[in-house]
Amino acid sequence: MKVGPPFLTKLLGRFESLISEGEEILRSAETIAAKHGYNELSGRHFESQAAYQQLNWPRFVEWRTKTATLLAHVLPKDHVHYPAVESIPALQSTEDRLEWGVSLLRGVKNDLEEGFLENIFIRIEADLASDYMGQAEQLLSEGQSGKFDHVPAAVLAGAVLEKGLRTLCACQQPVIPVVTPKGEPKTLNPLIDDLKKAGVFNELKAKQLRAWADIRNKAAHGEFDHFKRTDVEQMIQGITNFLADHLA
């Protein structure tokens, strides 16, 4: 099985849980006996309703809701199976429909395991990065000018950049290690150097990234008078654009 970013294990675990839950609902279904009638004109008995398996309705609705949420989270809207995902909220509580849903979960889970949905990791990371960069902008706008109000925004923006670079390392072929030979996490500058060597971006972009890394380091180490509010404003915009270009 191909190895993805750390949250792949959690994601696959969720798939496995819902597959097991769907199978259990199927196993615990109640068999409703067939109903028979009598035709007085013909003098014959007939089956007015065939026997069927009745699913536990509350459990089925809960499973259906969680399944729809998971698949909508994983599959992009332009994916070939997204129309199937959109149909799940209206899925009928019948044995064959539940079997279909469980099979769909198995298929998507297998695609994840085999690396056919690797873009999902970058897409999720891009969404998270965008949210955090929005928070950095808000921190900057709510601060009081002249009181080092720009420092928290610089720290947060730098952390988002580091997380984005680590994700880019994990998505390279071969994967770029994010720890040193001693097992220590690589800092921003080594990550930048490794990605530049891999051809992810050129030296000009690497130079910009190092400048933002320098601001982050100064903010984290109390060297607040070594950078200005305008530096952080440019840093936030620059990191936002960089991540949009490379994690989109």
List keywords for this structure.
248 residues; 2 domains; 9 helices; Four Helix Bundle (Hemerythrin (Met), subunit A); two-stranded antiparallel ribbon; mainly alpha
What does this entry look like structurally?
With 248 residues, the protein is mostly helical. It has helices at residues 7-27, 57-74, 82-87, 95-113, 119-142, 151-170, 188-197, 203-220, 229-246, and strands at residues 30-32, 35-39, 44-49, 52-54. It has two domains: 7-29 and 56-113, no CATH class; 119-246, Nucleotidyltransferases  domain 2 (Four Helix Bundle (Hemerythrin (Met), subunit A), Up-down Bundle). It contains nine helices and four strands; from the N terminus they run αββββαααααααα. The chain has a two-stranded antiparallel sheet with strand order 1-4. Strand 2 and strand 3 (44-49) form a beta hairpin.
Q: In one word, what is the shape?
A: elongated
Structural class: mainly alpha
| C-alpha Rg (nearest Å) | 27 Å
> What is the spatial order of strands in the main beta sheet?
1-4
Range of helix content? 55-70%
CATH architecture of the largest domain: Up-down Bundle
What number of structural domains do the residues give?
Answer: 2
Total strands: the figure is 4
Largest sheet: 2 strands, antiparallel
- Multimeric organization: single chain
Helix count? Answer: 9
Taken as a percent bin, the fraction of beta residues is 5-15%
CATH H-level homologous superfamily name of the largest domain: Nucleotidyltransferases  domain 2
Low-confidence stretches: none
CATH topology of the largest domain, what is it called? Four Helix Bundle (Hemerythrin (Met), subunit A)
Separation, N- and C-terminal Cα atoms:
25 Å
CATH C-level of the largest domain? Mainly Alpha
Mean pLDDT across the residues is: 86
Question: What letter string, H or E per element, gives the SSE order?
Answer: HEEEEHHHHHHHH
